[in-house]
Specification:
The chain has 234 residues and is α/β, with parallel strands linked by helices. It contains eight helices and seven strands, in the order βαββαβαβααβαααβ. Strand 1, helix 1 and strand 2 form a beta-alpha-beta unit. It holds the Pfam family adh_short_C2. Pathway: Lipid metabolism; fatty acid biosynthesis.
Length: 234
């Protein structure tokens, strides 16, 4: 059966590929975005997930167009890298407000309908950085690590209602961000990855598709690393 799915930050990069993968599986997929254009054929809803009113309005639009959200992928995120000694409070708090509190806002809104239906799938997109740390990214690492505790607590709250909550933690993935790195920096990163390469957005998307499907019905509170072995042991 076609489900109503929502992917935040789904108009580019990993989020766009996740949205496409869910659509290919037969789901009706909506994406939130702040700028640019949504993927062709998918419902696009402008939304700043740091604004609770915008989140509520986005969900109402999705509910009107394709029904209550049955699959939520909280993917939207930002970075504002800096060394701690030079990091401003805004650089720290704005990253947490988007990456962590933003996930709280959308998960809370989605959970209402899921609880009533006694079913649902929630996947939060974290990062290997949240598991092993990264210099110059204390804000980003804190936000992504926070998603793990949030997801596991939520999994305990919602499990009795047939709702699963899981985390995918990507490593270095082929995106515009990694493409902008120098060849020397890319080579240095790959030397630290046991599989010796960057991952693809498709590999993240297929993992999310699995976690939202029937084959993963008995998986909840899990953190699935898709990082080529970079963060193993964390």
């Amino acid at each position: 059966m076609s489900r109503s799915a929502l992917v935040t930050g789904g108009n580019r990069g990993i989020g766009r590929r996740i949205a496409g993968e869910l659509a290919a599986a037969g789901d009706q997929v909506a994406v939130t975005y702040r700028s640019g254009e949504p993927p062709e054929g998918l419902l696009g809803v402008t939304c700043d997930i740091t604004d609770t009113a915008q989140v509520d309005a986005a969900f109402k639009r999705v509910e009107e167009e394709q029904g209550p959200v049955e699959v939520l992928v909280a993917n939207a995120g930002i970075t504002k890298d800096n060394l701690l000694a030079m990091m401003t409070e805004d650089e720290f708090s704005s990253v947490l407000d988007t990456n962590l509190t933003g996930a709280f806002r959308v998960a809370k809104r989605a959970a209402r309908g899921m609880i009533r239906r006694r079913s649902g799938r929630i996947v939060l997109i974290s990062s290997v950085v949240g598991l092993m740390g990264s210099g110059g990214q204390t804000n980003y690492a804190a936000s992504k690590a926070g998603l793990v505790g949030f997801a596991r607590s939520l999994a305990r709250e919602l499990g009795s209602r047939g709702i699963t909550v899981n985390v995918v933690a990507p490593g270095f993935i082929e995106t515009d961000m990694t493409a902008a790195l120098s060849e020397e920096r890319q080579a240095e990163i790959k030397r630290n990855v046991p599989l010796g390469r960057f991952g693809s957005a498709d590999e993240i998307a297929k993992t999310v598709r699995f976690l939202t499907g029937e084959d993963a019905a008995y998986i909840t509170g899990a953190v699935i690393p898709v990082d080529g072995g970079l963060g193993m042991g964390h």
